[in-house]
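Bug report (template v2)

What were you trying to do?
Predict the complex of my protein with iron/sulfur cluster.

What happened?
Run completed; filing so the output is reviewed.

Input:
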Amino acid sequence: MAHFLTEEMILNMGPHHPSTHGVLRFILQTDGEMMRRAVPDIGFLHRGIEKIAELVPYQSFMPFTDRIDYLASACCNLGYAVTVERLAGIEIPEKADYLRIIAAELTRIGSHLIGLGALLLDLGAVTPFVHALRERETFNDLMEALCGARLTHNYVRIGGVSHDEPPSFREKTRKFIDHIENEFIDEFNELASFNTIFINRMVNVGVISPEQAIEHCLVGPNLRGSGVKYDVRKNDPYSIYDRLDFDVPVGHGKFGTLGDCYDRYWVRVEEVRESCRIIRQALDQMPESGAIRTKLTRAFKPPKGEIYVRTECPRGEMGFYLISDGGASPYRLKIRTGSFTSMAIISEVSQGVMVADLVAIIGSFDIVAPEVDR
Amino acid sequence: MTNEGVRYFKNIREAILTTAKGMKITLKYWVKEPAITIEYPDRLGKGRTAEDLVSERYRGFLKLDPSKCIGCLQCMRACPIDCILIKVEKIGEERYLTRFDVDQSKCMYCGLCVEVCPTGAITFSKRFEGACYDIGELCIKHLQEPVSVARPKAKKKEE
Ligand code: SF4
Ligand code: SF4
């Protein structure tokens, strides 16, 4: 009888792998095509952002929050600003609140576009990614007109926002969300989401039950994909989300089991629609003119104290835990991110799947590597 | 034929149909839409430069108007990564700006320096093409020779 190799093989995936979305490394224990386990090895993109916070003044830390999650910088800006404002009890002008929400929700659309496109790209579908990027280009242009940068926006400030709306911003934004809502999503669905080959690769893969999701502290779309209706914007509203009317899409086993990769994907598609609804309402309610920024004192020092504030980023709950000792920079700032929590569950759901399915699983969590390490 | 065999051919049919659906959309864009990307930097269009591509508020390289700068050093302090270096020296009675360097290779174009400047001396330009062979070239020295510091009070009288 021929001699077969029967022991498991240890394989290395990453740190530079096309489907690991940045510098991420997985150590795979494989048995032929089957996976025993995939253990993530994190820390390649650790930049010490939390330590930097202790060295720079409160206002000067804002550009660093861009780099926590570079695909959704306005959302991270917003989270940090809300944290400091709550600690110091700063009131912000009404118009600034609306501009922030519009920027954050536009960013959510932009981020989900990349997330959906990149997942498809990992599975071998190049065309939908290009379509998604084409739409993201409009979003980039809108943000560039609003604040001058295309990726790291640094738009929100402690006490308001940096710029007022540019001329014809409202019309352009309306046109963009109308296009996304009425044309783009339907076309994208026909092109990719309802493609039978794609569905077959996504359903019943990487199933996470609601209990398991809660046990592993999954957040954001990954949690909602398992059918748990929890969204910080609804359950613990910050800024002006309590004035806006929107739904929280949850997974319900659209084509397969509840909590599979397709459910997580589909929640994101639906979230793009909800974001469009939020932006439309915010544009309608936003005052025509008004102040956009509460001026802080030059050497801004919040009172002594500590606070934890959570906000909903495209990749789930982002929490800022801030301790102030009354000085000019934070005594300690801890940032909790959504991608980090989803890394923990990968080794569990990857047991017994095919190697090719691991790519679908990682992609469906929409991980951004800098957010994992910070 | 067995059930297995029927399913096999059904799957093939399904795969072809679903791919054709996607191809229809691709074809639509191929035939109807004009090109969405432009060839950069060779075909920007007549008389257009790269700077026309970006919006009014674009945060490009920093530029300085030395006649407005009062040497308050606020921009230098606001910068989170210390890429601005300013030196103010007293020569005789007058205060002179002797050095104003901005290291654009470190700058992250956050805009904090522009925001704190009380006189609007430091602003963003639309220039973004910074590729060069030596990283030292990106450390831009805005002053070739000492410039006397602008006095905001004297300026107000003029106006
Ligand atoms: S834009 Fe930001 S990083 Fe660049 S010089 Fe100004 S403060 Fe420093
Ligand atoms: S550029 Fe503006 S902020 Fe900087 S030293 Fe001159 S006046 Fe002050």
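What did the reviewer find?
The first strand of chain B starts at residue 62 and ends at 64. Residues 102 and 146 of chain B are 16 Å apart (CA to CA).
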